[in-house]
Amino acid sequence: MKAMRVIGMALAVCALAFPVMLRAQENVDLARGADRVMTGGKDSFISITFDEPEPAAAKEEEEDKGSGSWGGFGGAMIQYLPLDLSPLDPMTEDRRIDVFRSDLLLIGGQGGLIYQNFRFGGFGFGNSWDTADDVAGKRRSADMTMGGGGVFLELNNNLSSNAGLAIGTLLGAGSISLKASGNDLGGNGKWSANRSFFMAYPYVGFWLAPTQWMWLQANAGYMYFNMDTGGDEFENKLGVEMVDGDIIGGFAANLTLNFGWNPNE
């Protein structure tokens, strides 16, 4: 009987102690798990990884690669255009005044955008020339003005980091205005006429860039245009023709000085 009481008391103690032991074991397991996570143990249930930041140099290189495709520029242009101006002799030589010079210089500018090896934009140029003399004590004069403008398209091929070849064309419209004055013209002694025409200038060129923001380019090609001089407007008040033929284009060369951002340099 006494033995049965001892056994019963032992079982009661075990029943009370078992939940406490179970809770203690759970606390130990939680502590071990936390330790494994903190120490990066092989049997961790949770793993934490951190991405390494992308190197700054690689980022800058990627940005430069994208932004370096585009550029822009603007600059001055001077064009040499030798023309046969003998059709204008009735305005000059036939009136006993000096003829116009045939080697014309046109002053202008251009500007546009650059995308990789392509350049495109707009241009404009113009100039005027005059000649005069006294004939029998009376002043006689003749004036000519030429101008034009339009768009250009160009493809570049780099020879080095600061030099290259180009092929392109200017497309647009031009005009020539003619004026004369003198007592030999009849009426009020003044005469004028103007004619517009289509203009195209295919060319090849060479450019040199001493810096990335400045480059010099020389082009040569054929300036195509045809100024039709038919019609009564090319006669003076006395019915005398002031022009005796069309004025047509020819070989041309130009030099441009450009400032801007050249991604091809």
Q: How would you characterize the overall build of this protein?
A:
An eight-stranded antiparallel β-barrel has the order 1-2-3-4-5-6-7-8. The protein has two domains: 49 residues; 191 residues, Porin (Beta Barrel), CATH 2.40.160.20. It starts with a helix and ends with a strand. Helix content is 19%, strand content 52%.
* Spatial arrangement of strands, main beta sheet: 1-2-3-4-5-6-7-8
Helix and strand composition category: alpha+beta
Number of helices: 2
Instruction: Please compute the radius of gyration using only Cα atoms.
Output: 44 Å
Number of strands: 8
Distance between the termini: 109 Å
Give the low-confidence spans: 1-22, 33-50, 62-66
Largest sheet: number of strands, sense, barrel closure: 8 strands, antiparallel, barrel
Order of helices and strands: HHEEEEEEEE
| CATH class category label of the largest domain | Mainly Beta
What sort of overall outline do the alpha carbons produce when their principal axes are compared? elongated
Average pLDDT level: 82
